[in-house]
Amino acid sequence: MEYKEVIGIRRSIRYFDPDRPVEADKIQKILESMRVASCAVNAHWLRAVVVKRSEIPQSTLDSLKTPVTALVQELAPVHIYCYLDTGTVKQVEGKRLRELVDVGALNPSHGWSHKFVDELVYPQILVPFSEDPAYPVAAAFDCGGAGTQGLLTAVDEGLGVCWTAFNAEPAKEMMDIPDDWLPLYVMNVGYPLESREAGGQRPRPPFEELYFDGKVGRPFPRDPKVVAELEQEKMFTTPAPLPGRKQEVRDLSRKLGLPE
Amino acid sequence: MKPEQPIEQYESVAAWAKGLREQWGGDPLAEEPEKLEALSAFCEFDGRDPDELLAFCFLRRKETGVRFVSVKRREALALQVRAFREASGLSGTEARRLTSNLLSFFIHNGIQMNAGTI
């Protein structure tokens, strides 16, 4: 699929085929795409643990569920539990920044050198930053970016995906999660039972409410020609609800024995 | 349940019927008798009528009087639904359908009951 089409067809899938396994190579591609994501100071805070739902004892699976997300976790054959490794900055001690200098990504043209990394960036910026209350928020932003790359790769591979919360305590015990990893979300993965459109592109806030030009309150101009171009390229698809969506949901509910 | 009161006349059942009509069109409660049969059987099993079941899920904050759904009570009710399903002797699709019909009653009355937790 073309990049913009992948964005356009992605949905949070909530009806998975619970019995259809996901191929290991597709899971690997999801993880590989997370690894090459953009990340501040090349730290790579995201950690992910892949678990097949069928291998989780039912009592443990029940304890992982939250009241709202339980069904998605129950149906998805694969769970990718995502964490933020808060210890990574101090573990790598600027090594990954030095690598960026070595490969010509960070250059003297922009003020970078090994000495700058070793004597200033790591000890005077990164170490204090890693102890700042805002640190997990900043690191979580990068984890979200990496996770999104994984999400879109899954869609490109024909899979359905949905982020949900999970109960952190039983998950920690089940997967031997280190104390300094912060729980983020679980990516529920499987083959969708829903149609590809899954009822159409879901409503979003108006562009003008979200993005600004120079000053907050002055919306970034939205050119209808660009919108039309993105429609052509399938980043924008038919808005939800598509005709027949209610019937589709009802049929799925009956197939899976779910409330109507 | 009050023996003199038909189940359709309980306020919570009327709200369920309304919710189903709005969601799916038609009159699902009238068209699919198994829904009301499931609720009646559950009420008999539990000993409370539909309005009492619903009222059980809510508490009021002492300070403000604002009504809220009690997580513990909702969980207790979910356990009761599970016990009812097990006592029914049904399995597979039939058991799931029984549970789903009950959950639908709570869901359309604003009590979030996720099928994945039952």
Task: Walk me through this protein's architecture.
The complex is a heterodimer of chains A (260) and B (118). Chain A has helices at residues 3-9, 24-35, 58-64, 70-75, 88-92, 95-102, 114-130, 135-156, 168-175, 207-210, 224-232, 245-256, and strands at residues 46-52, 78-85, 160-164, 181-190, 212-213, 215-219. Chain A has 260 residues and is of the alpha+beta class. Chain A has a 4-stranded antiparallel beta sheet with strand order 1-2-4-3, sandwiched between helices. In chain A, strands 5-6 form a two-stranded antiparallel ribbon. In chain A, strand 5 and strand 6 form a beta hairpin. Chain A is globular and about 65 Å long. The relative contact order of chain A is 0.19. The mean pLDDT of chain A is 96. Chain B has 118 residues and is mainly alpha-helical. Chain B has one domain. Chain B is built from 6 helices and 2 strands; from the N terminus they run H-H-H-H-E-E-H-H. In chain B, strands 1-2 form a two-stranded antiparallel sheet. The longest helix of chain B is centred in the last third of the chain and has 18 residues, at 71-88. Chain B starts with 10 loop residues before the first helix and ends in an 11-residue tail after the last helix. The model of chain B has no long low-confidence stretch (mean pLDDT 92). The interface between A and B is medium-sized, with 19 and 22 residues.
